[in-house]
Amino acid sequence: MKNSSIPREPAVAGQFYPASAEKLQHDIATYFSEAVPRKYTNVRAVISPHAGYVFSGKVAASAFNQLDEEADYERIFILASSHHYHFNGASVYCIGDFIMPYGIEKVDTDFGEQLVASHPEIFTNNPSPHAREHAIEVQLPFLHYKLKNDYKIVPIVIGTSEPETCLEMASALKPYLNEKNLFVISTDFSHYPDYQNAKIVDAATAKAILSNDPDVLLNVLAENQNKGIPNLLTGLCGWTSVLTLLYMTQNNPSFEYHEVDYRNSGDAVYGNHREVVGYWAIVLTQK
User: Fold this and answer.
1) Which of 123, 266, 271, 284 could bridge across to 116 with cysteines, CB 3.0–4.6 Å?
2) Does any domain span residue 73?
3) Which CATH number does the domain housing residue 165 bear?
């Protein structure tokens, strides 16, 4: 018999997004009304930002706006690189659902347990990395608003910084990258260069992702770090999550990445141009 479930409580409601269900619904609706219209079909994955909604909400809505609202997904895998923990492999939340201001986001706990049991060298069911992590949580209101059919999520927080481990994770997850499921990759792009340098760095990173070549992405990230750009902390904070997806799609010409929308925090009402964070909406389609 399964142990009693332990729901995951919101960590950043009232900070990254409104804690009021009514205000959250209003804001999400506004972001979708201003988002890039749907341009793509057969979407298998979206790359979406995870910043405060006042900065990245429109870009996130543009990513999720590419989904078919009538899609009936078996599972939605959400990959996020940990902001608080460093550990080998990744943590799958298996012990309960996610509580959100508007209600419950159902977690496929049975599948999560199977994933951990099948690949114990890569995945753990330790819930600690999920407790304060915002990068999965902030994606959920967009899914909830956009999709009309019920779905279950598989929340995965990546703790490794080793590309070889990302390759192993990709091997385990690749069988599920198909029309039955959706992958959501949570990441922001450049952190803290000035406005113009952010646009240059983020364009190069996006081009690397569109190449569908993990080595190209790793090389571009290293090149940007070595350019001596003032205040550039990282070119892609969720690089291990993006890299894992690229390892799943490399050498398969049926997969194609597309740019959808770009902004950085300097474009927001409250943004400055001295130190910014970049946000891309990118989708993966399959022919």
Assistant:
1) 123
2) yes
3) 3.40.830.10
